Amino acid sequence: MEEVKLFRTWSSPYALRIVWALKLKGIVYETIYEDLANKSSLLLEYNPVHKKVPVLLHNGTPICESLVILEYIDETWNTTARFLPEDPLARATARFWAKFNDDRVNHHFSCAVNRNSYVITYKCS
């Protein structure tokens, strides 16, 4: 049986997109909630570069960064409908909106959720 674990926080919109992807693909997984104020040794081991969530652990191999994880899920479990359209222009458009969401929307969501927390990694304006 495949081991799939998702390291996340309850408030991360980046991790939430991975939850949606796993559910859309029907993938059984274990959730491991992280406290970003006290990061676990596993999180630091699995994502030594950025030290943040989400991290997908698949059969002992960590995959980091939400958009990379989405591509990995789509390519690894490709027996169901794909996340991106086949047409190159439609794919580019979908990627544009995903990047726009990362750059303009998720940043403000994270700031709003974490406004009163000292675990803010972005400058909120």
As an assembly, this protein is single chain
Tally of helical segments: 4
Give, in spatial order, the strands making up the sheet with the most strands.
Answer: 2-1-3-4
CATH architecture: 3-Layer(aba) Sandwich
**Biggest sheet record:** 4 strands, mixed
Please, how many domains?
A: 1
Helical residue percent?
Answer: 40-55%
Going by helix content, strand content and strand pairing, the class is alpha+beta
- H/E series, N to C? EHEHEEHH
Question: Uncertain regions: pLDDT < 50 for 5+ in a row?
Answer: 118-122
- The overall strand count is 4
CATH class: Alpha Beta
DSSP strand content: 5-15%
CATH topology-level fold name: Glutaredoxin
Could you report the average pLDDT, rounded to the nearest whole number? 87
In CATH, what is the homologous superfamily?
Glutaredoxin
Give an overview of the whole structure.
A hairpin with a 2-residue loop joins β3 (55-58) and β4 (61-64). The chain has 125 residues and is of the alpha+beta class. It contains four helices and four strands, in the order βαβαββαα.
